Amino acid sequence: MIQYEYTLCRIPKSTSSFCARGKYLLLSNQMPEQPTNRVEIIDVVRGLVMVLMTLDHTRDYFGNHDIDALDVSATTPALFFSRWVTHLCAPAFVFLAGSSVSMLSRKLDSGHLTNFLIGRGLILIVFEQTLLRCFGWYFNFDYHYMSANVLFGIGGSLILLSLFTRFPERFQLPFSLLVILLPTFLTVVPYFTTHATGAFWQIVLLGGNIEFLPGYNFYVSYPLIPWFGIMSLGYSLAGQFLQSQNSAIWIYWSLSFLVLFIVMRFIGLGNPVAWQQHEITWRSAIDFINLEKYPPSLLFTLLTLSIAFLMFGLLSSVTGSAAKFFGILGKAPLFYYATHITLIHLTALVVALIRYGHAEWLYVGPGIFWDVTLPGHPVDYGLPLPVVYGITVLVVISLYPACRWYSVLKGSNSNTWLKYF
Asked: Among 160, 171, 301, 307, which lies 20 to 30 A Cα-Cα from 416?
């Protein structure tokens, strides 16, 4: 995802330079020739899914993990949907990243765009494995545990997108759809299922833990190919979504993905675990939409993007204070992403110290990125779900002024490094 803003000056056609205010920023979109509401709705939708993301991470650090929220046989409807609804976040973010790159590509020549995407991708990957890892997710410098999370997926996908942008335009959409379908096809190829092993395949397609040295673990939650497929789709469809004055195009794509999802789910294709009927009706219903995210299955991608497209269509004309609130958050997503993780983790640490007098499960070991979430936590650890929701609201409200301040600072400061964050 890329944020950029600029003021164009009158320059000769032979140059592609920006004037003095030209900046490349992370994760937003402002293009004068695009309809204003089409640009603003990206920030609104992004801000909304960031709030959902906050709920997910608050539950990670404050919730009761004795019950797996997605275990259909043990979960409750409230717990299941509190986790399930957050599945929308990553696909929407990554899709919007591709759309942002598409808009940027109309202002940069191919060479500058390639350099920018590779540089930005590398910065995101390094940032996640250094500052965000040590001061956000883990609160330690013990590199026995590392994890490739959403910034790894976005950063790696940006690097791959630097090649994709050079494809002829007529091939881009078919290729994107092919990449999204690829993992599902490969799982039925005998040669692949028996030979696709090792760190390379885990990084690019399969995910999972890589013990690259004895005792040193690198857990890949976001392998590159599935998420690159979603990003390249955002790049391919940006023109239709952002230039059309009719939100019906979003509804069309939403319904198309939804119908395909329903058909494939009923016949048992596109997800590692098939849908099953249960004695209790609501358990059968949630099992139907309980899909594999790590790595994202085809059905996971179809359903989450269908919902994201529907949000674009329904929110395209929304205005007022709510749109402004979510829009402010959406204009500073990387800033919000990094600060909300640190704030939630730090708050959980303080609460645990008050309750138990110690909190080593929050700063020693793998944290939330393992088969067992926060291993070593007390048996009575975890707060009721309504309290988790309350903490989520407080985190969002407390970070809103910071996001507004950061957006203003970023827009008025020409510091070379600030534009990357």
From this structure: 160
Contact 31, 39 (CB under 8 A): yes
Q: Are 288 and 223 a contacting pair, CB within 8 Å? A: no
* Closest-CA residue to 333 (of 96, 61, 39): 96
User: Rounded CA gap, 396 and 1, in Å?
Assistant: 21
Residue found under tokens 């138990």: 356
> What pLDDT score does 71 carry?
94
Give yes or no for a cis peptide into 295 (omega within 30° of 0): yes
Instruction: Give pLDDT tens digits for 275-318.
Output: 999 999 999 999 999 999 999 999 999 999 999 999 888 887 77
Contact 395, 51 (CB under 8 A): no
Q: What is the pTM of this model?
A: 0.87
First to last CA, the chain: 12
Q: What is the DSSP string of 398-415?
A: HHHHHHHHHHHHHHH---
Q: What is the DSSP string of 2-20?
A: -EEE-------TT-----T
Q: What are phi and psi of 3, to 5 degrees?
A: -110, 135
Cβ-count burial of 200 within 10 angstroms (0-12 exposed, 13-18 middle, 19+ buried)?
Answer: exposed
Q: Please report, for residues 141, 172, 272, the alpha-carbon distance to residue 163 in angstroms, rounded to integers and kept in the order given.
A: 35, 11, 30
User: CB within 8 A of 56, min separation 6: which ones?
Assistant: 83, 86, 89
Structural contact between residues 365 and 375, judged by C-beta atoms closer than 8 angstroms: yes
pLDDT tens-digit map of 368-412: 887 788 999 999 999 999 999 999 999 999 999 999 998 888 777
Cα distance between residue 166 and residue 8, in whole Å? 24
Radius of gyration of the chain (CA): 21
